[in-house]
Amino acid sequence: MTRSGPTLLPPDPSFGHPSEAEVWRQIVDHAPAHWTVIACQHLTDEEREYEIDIIVLIPDHAIVVLEVKSGSVWIDETGQWWQGRSGAEHRIDPLRQVELGKYAARRYVEKDPRRSRRRLRWCHALVLPNSRVADDFALPDLPRSMVHGRDDIAGLVDRLAAAGQANPEGHAAPREDECDLVAEILRGRSLPLRDVVAAAAERGDEVTSRLTAEQAMILKVTRLLNRVEIRGGAGSGKTVLALAQARALTRGGDGRAKQRVALLCYSIGLASYFKREVAPDKYNRRPAFVGTFEDFARHIGLEEFGTRQDAAFWEQELPDRMAELAAELPDGKKFDAIIVDEAQDFADSWWVPLVRSLVDEEEGGLYVYSDENQRVFPRFGRPPVQLVPLVLDHNLRNTQQIADVFSSLTPMRMRALGGQGPEVTFIPTPAGEDPQAAADDQVDALLDEGWRDEDIALITTGRRHPVQAELQEDEGQEGYWASFWDKDSVFYGHVLGCKGLERRAVVLCVNDTGVHDRSKEKLYVGLSRATDRLVVVGDPEMIAAMGGIDVARRLGAG
Question: How far is it, in rounded angstroms, from Cα 426 to Cα 535?
């Protein structure tokens, strides 16, 4: 795109006097597009502070520093400069002022490690927009070409270009790229940019405050109830609340005895989060068990397991054998309370061994956290006991922009209280084309925005990303999930393993090759994993088919 005028730094400067703005506007309106005009440039060195009214960078001519003096300006018989403005008169030394500013700016530029190795041509000039300067004006240190009076303003751009041709010192006329570099240097280096991480952290603090208050209320209610199902959509704080409840029951207090607690989930990734959060270096008293349903089977004594593909083993043989082992546990090995997060992942048959693992099967604590719309596995189960339902209808985790995108997929109407954030980005890819390369590009774009590796996850809905596949093969599941906490790495995952987990910035790669029974649920999980910044990559028609036209419309995909 061709520029219609010069580059302006800043685009809309604030001048101390209208005459300065008038001179700036005259230059801006008539300068060629390859010029750069810098206004109100401040510099400070060890000796003093400087304020330069205008610097004009003219490729193939010079860098011209201008001092603008408004009002009536004259020189008396002793050679003293005077300025009259608003009914007052005072002495000035505009020539020394502009020279000092020019040399300060040049020194600053030449000290920068990026500077041109050539000594560039700098010159200075006075602009007196309200005073007349005679055509034959002359001073030993100020030729007529370097001072511009009110009659010269209309042709100021041409006069500056002509003055820039003079070269008494023999320095090089700056090329256009050298002018661009000077402008960049004068803007400063290593500046503090808009910090996306800091903004996300501030929003996170606000979310934590709200979540803590909601936790306190729910935990207060559940002190009076032993059998509860807490239902809530993505972002409602179920996982954080489940963890808080496990700690509270283990710790006891407020009239309740310390309890022997088990905290379970299905996902290895979510279990690794729980284990980290109750590590010995954080808490002296930990839940008696924390892990996956498979870990729980080992905990109560099961030693042999079938393959992951053996559905009959996992949904019938395994829970039957676990129920037998649980019934034989002595009371000291059983649990006063069991807490299950992402309970929609549990099959009907899995609940029997859990209930039998309670010290009191009739009255023992059973706390279930679920979101039916995140049921991404073909299992359907409910605990075989009556539970009191409690509903979390606030989304506290996701920004309002992210929550709005998946709002039609939530199990109930959710109030988005996560605060404001950046708009969700949608990157369309052609039908039938693997969107992985485009998703990888978006990871790089997030890094360029200022997000750290530890803030970013790339999550797929179909085939695993090659980085995930390689890491799982090389490190195994435990080693792979340990990488989720690596501060030096972007995380690569799949929606099936990421429920209950989050990252500040997520690239969701919708790479399904077709629509399946649980496609809507997978898309829902993927869209809700980012707390602050969400980028969705994929075929617009596939996204509409998976999540519905409302999701596509909110993404701008349909």
Answer: 6
Tens-digit pLDDT profile for residues 301-343? 998 887 767 778 888 899 999 999 999 999 899 999 999 999 8
Longest distance between any two alpha carbons in the chain, whole Å:
113
Burial 116-126 (b: 16+ CB within 10 A, else e): beeebbbbbbb
DSSP 516: -
Phi, psi of 223 (to 5 degrees): -65, -25
C-alpha span between 249 and 338 (Å, rounded): 10
Q: Could you give the CA distance from residue 39 to residue 35 in angstroms, rounded to a whole number?
A: 13
Type of residue numbered 73: V
> What is the Cα–Cα distance from 542 to 512, expressed in whole angstroms?
8
Q: Indicate if the pLDDT at residue 89 is higher than 50.
A: yes
Consecutive H or E run containing 404: helix 400-405
- Name the pairing type of β-strands 7-9 and 337-340: unpaired
What would the pLDDT profile of 216-255 be if each residue is shown by its tens digit? 777 777 777 889 998 888 888 888 889 888 988 998 876 6
Could you say which DSSP state residue 527 is in? H
Chain center to CA of 502? 13
Distances (CA, A) of 85 to 73, 147, 152: 9, 19, 21
How far apart are alpha carbons 364 and 222 in whole angstroms? 13
Distance of CA 396 to the CA centre of its chain: 17
Cα three-residue angle 416-389-351, rounded to 5 degrees: 115
Decide if 409 contacts 531 (C-beta within 8 A).
Answer: no
